[in-house]
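Thread: Aminotransferase-like plant mobile domain-containing protein, structure

OP (GT): Posting the sequence first so everyone is looking at the same thing. Length is 301 residues per the record. Can we get the structure tokens written out before standup tomorrow? I want them in the notebook alongside the other entries.
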Amino acid sequence: MRRQQGKRLDDRLNDRWFRLDEALVNAFVERWRPETHTFHMPFGECTITLQDVAYQLGLPVDGRYVSGCLLEFQIYIQGGRSAWVWFQELLGVTPPPSQVQKYAVNCSLFQETFGECPDGADDETLFADKSGNRVHIRWLPYVARLEEMGTYSWGSAALAWLYRCMCRVANRHVVKLAGPLQLLQSWIFWRFPLFRPAGYETFSWPLASRWSGYNPSGSEKGPRVQMWRLRIDRLQDREFIWMPYSSPDVLQVVHPEALEHRHMALWRSVTSLIYFAVIEWHQIDRVLPQFGGVQPVRVPP
């Protein structure tokens, strides 16, 4: 799902973005615990929630779940048509074998077939695989029903995918991290002032666009990872902003729809996040101070 330019809550991210600080992200992912879906810090647990997705990316967090099925990855359930026949009907081309890897099509095919890409088309995607340059044919049903795109909970899908990617990389045999990592990095900058780059004080919507133009240091990655690890080890409770979105400066740029009660109720819910076969738990009961609450003794995961 590519970021789209626009002002509606379901249209979202503008074409301004920032580069990923791989050393910082790596140091934080080392603190991720798959059992609880939280970062274990010296001062306690914290995590990225649906509230963060709504504010940072401006994506809707309610609506229909993002899922579907291609029977045996070849025959789509409705109508019994071959997925590749359906691909031809919808897009007017049949991808050659050289452009297909399993059931994902190279983005280069779309670039070559449909000419010049729109502005921002080469940016990162929210639901990328590790290569970042392939699109799975499971998205065909959504291409066929573009008018319904705004009815889905893209925010919960993005968060489920980020959770799953961070859980996977906790396995020592996995060396590459996929997912909407700009969400993770923007969350770090908003929540941890000590790690925030200087000179980015202008707020805009969505809030992740605050870091537009950010370019991390190009120095060697290894020593920078060690530096971030040491800084994380020394963190104290007062160096984490539990409620960064309550300030007047933030509230004046937030889209009014994001502040509706129906969204706030979902932010505070312990529920499942769904993205196709990915199902992850939204365990805000372990990080209640992020919502102004008092944290009781945590139960075992």
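GT: Both are above now. Quick notes for whoever picks this up: The first helix runs from residue 22 to 29. The chain has two domains: 9-65+153-291, 70-151.
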